[in-house]
Every structure is written in C-alpha cells, then in structure tokens.
Design brief:
The protein has about 475 residues and is α/β, with parallel strands linked by helices. It folds into 3 domains: about 5-160, 5'-nuclease (Rossmann fold, 3-Layer(aba) Sandwich), CATH 3.40.50.1010; about 175-245, no CATH class; about 260-470, P-loop containing nucleotide triphosphate hydrolases (Rossmann fold, 3-Layer(aba) Sandwich), CATH 3.40.50. Helix content is about 30%, strand content about 20%. The chain has helices spanning about 15-20, 40-45, 55-70, 75-80, 85, 120-135, 145-155, 185-190, 265-275, 290-305, 335, 340-350, 360-370, 400-410, 435-445, 465-470, and strands at about 10-15, 35, 80, 100, 140-145, 160, 180, 195-200, 200-210, 220-225, 230-240, 240-245, 280-285, 310-315, 375, 390-395, 415-420, 450-455. It has a 6-stranded mixed β-sheet. Helix 1 (about 15-20) links the parallel strand 1 (about 10-15) and strand 2 (about 35). The model is unreliable at about 85-90 and about 320-325 (pLDDT under 50).
Amino acid sequence: MIKRENDTTCLFVLDTNVLMHDPSALFRFQEHDLFLPMVVLEELDRGKKGMSEVARNVRQVSRFLDQLMGGADKTEIDAGLALGPLAGNGGGLEAASGRLYFQTTAFKLDLPEALPGTVADNQILGIAQVLSRERPDRQVIVVSKDINLRIKAAVLGIVAEDYSNDRVLDDAELLYSGHDALPADFWERHQKAVDAWQEDGHTFYRVSGPDIADWYPAQCLSLDRDDGFEAIVRDKPAETEAVIELVEDHRVTRHNVWGITARNREQNFALNMLMDPELDFVTLLGTAGTGKTLLALAAGLAQVLDQNRYREIIMTRVTVPVGEDIGFLPGTEEEKMTPWMGALMDNLEVLTRPEGGGDWGREATNDLLRNRIRISSLNFMRGRTFLDKYIILDEAQNLTAKQMKTLITRAGPGTKVVCLGNISQIDTPYLTETTSGLTYVVDRFKHWEHGGHITLMRGERSRLADFASQTL
C-alpha cells in the first residue's frame, strides 16, 4: 500500500471493478472517506442483470447503497453518508468511521487529448484530478483492480492502488505447504519427551518440545534418513505437544490405491490424506503433471466402489476457457460439461485399464464407473446439499473466496471435498496467486483438525512434460 501523507484520512475514489469484486469494499476502508463517481453508478446499473457472480455482487452493492441512503435528502448526501451503521451487518467487518460521497455535479475534466473523457476509466482519473485540486488538504487515491488504469494514473501523476483487502498473503511463497522437513537431530533433541504406542495396526508418537509449536493439525512430517520417517500430525492437545501417526507407504504395490502407487513423498502424503475418513476437506496444489487429478480419482474410486464409504463421485470445475470461448454447448448439464472434463477422461483411461478381458473388460468397467461418477456444473451448486458424496473440484485456483465458500458449504454429513489446482495458472480476471479462493481456503483451513493440505513438488507425467515445466 502507498504511504499515507501525514497519517491523515484519505479520500478513496473507487473503480467499478472493486465493488463488483467485493461488495463489502464499502466498509473496508476504516476511518477513510470514499467517493463514487457517477460513471461508476452507471456501470453498476449496467452490470446488475444476470445470474453470474458479478451480477449478484452488483445487486448486493446496490442494496448496501440503498440502505446507506435511508431516505437521506440532497443536503445530507452532499455532506457525505456515514458508513458506520451498516458495518456491523457486513459479516464481521470492523466498524467503518468514514463517509461516502457521491458525484452530485458535473466536473470539468482536464485530461490530455490522448485520453477521451467518454471512456469510463478516463472519467474516473479526471475526477480524481479535480478532487485533488479542489481538496488540497486531502490525499486523493484511486482504488482499482484494473492494472492498465493504475498505469495511466501513474503517467498522469495520480496516486492509484490495487484493492488488496482480499489478499490472503503478501507473497504466494508464504503459502502453507502442508509439509515440514524435520531437522536431522530431531529425535536426539526430543528423545526424553516421546511416548510411542500402536493402535489398530497404526503407530503413534506423543512428542513434546519447542519445535511442535509451529506444527498444524494434519501437517505432514518427514525426516530424511535411511528409514524414511513419514508421519502426519493427528492431535495438538497443547502448544508444545502433539500426537503424530506414521503414514502408510503407498509406494509399495501391496498398498496401491485402485492400482495406483505413489511415486514420491508428497504423493504418498496425498494418498494418505485422500484415504483418511477423518479428513473432510483436502487441498492438493501442484504444477501440471504432479498427479493431482489421478490421485484424487483413484482414492475416490477405491472408497466408492471398494469400501462403500461414499455413494458416488461428483466431479466439477470452473468453466474458464484458456483460449477463445467455443460458445454454447448442446445437451444436458453433464453433456455440456464433458468438453471441460478432459482431465477426468484422460485419468479414467489410466485407471480403467483391465489386466485381463480386453475391450470387453474395459467397456464393462467404464459402464460401472459412469454410474458412480457424476459431472456437475458449479453454476447449479447454490442451494444444494450433498450427502455421502466424494466431491472433486478441479482447477479451483479460478474460484474467488466467495465462490469457494458457496461450494464447500454444500457438503452435508459424510461428504468429503477435494480441491485441486495450480495457483500459477489462473485464468479468471482480477484474481492473482494471493487472492485466489484456493489460496484462501488453504490458509484458513490449516488450523482445522479435519482439513489436510499438501503441495506436490515433482512432476511425474513424463520427462518431456517435466522439462517443459522447468524451461518454458
């Protein structure tokens, strides 16, 4: 954020995309004042129709503004509307003590000839210039999610900022990885504070010491030495005390999951979390080829068909095209989603290779799977409740935090939600690595004992894919 001059309250001029992105932005500026140009209200009016997330946000902004008005007359509007009364109704927001101003008169804009005043972005910049001249005692700052508008503002000498209140972390490198490599002398330093026992064929350790304070529930632990110690945190009864459990080694054939074995340490941790009935929510991050979808599907099939833990698999993803949109698609909901589910089909080919039976065996297996795997669209998730389902959300990095909340809260009793994604491949406008809904849930769920996360590091698709990921 830009340094405030003299620590005085600022006047923030909001761009339309900020309110479209976060309707509660009106209450996120604490003691500072807000200014809404008339062109912003016009753009909000044009964007209110439809069933998209943006349209819903615009309608919520309109409701907030209507409540703030509260029958105020022209004099009260000119004096600025107090933002405080609604702050308590904004979902746990801190009280905003600033005021909201509207453009009530026509401004004479003094923009360069290269910037026509008929363009909405240029009008916002021109209004910020006028406000800076008319109110020299206030620092006027434009807030926008549009990078190009901020670049033009810098060229004109106007202070502009990105809207960063939705930013989960300052840097994506700080995101919780779900794994901690223990120091080589870990057991020597904690030897006197360790209890070990076995229960139902599983080995547990109770460990105490200062290193435990930085652990999270369901965090994966490893120690690089000959015996390849790998464990997961099961309980943290105290700040410096934890119960850890040795994980099952899915790298050996006898512990395969639907015919799939782990090829590295992170994949082994992922399979342990995916197969764990105590973990209701699992997130897998990783670049292309790390095996996210394959592992999630294999674990889902094993628990649906072999263990009868869940009734069916529901696969869904965000329909954001990488290239040009191919337009409307015919058919049912599932048929419309089929072109987006190439990853599902590719991985099912790997998982349904019968050891015997030839084409007949493959077709029989595919018929069985079609009855237990359902493809759904995110557009129709609102209001639903899923019971005893295994839900896989692919390409979750393209969801906003609000969309992610909408999906996860659909889970009923006995349902497990698995989110897959790569935050370095975001296709949704105005979303970044630090504001993605996937980043948001990874950070918020790390303290919950029934949620697990692991970042897959090594690509296992092919040597060609690995080389391309590293060099291109």
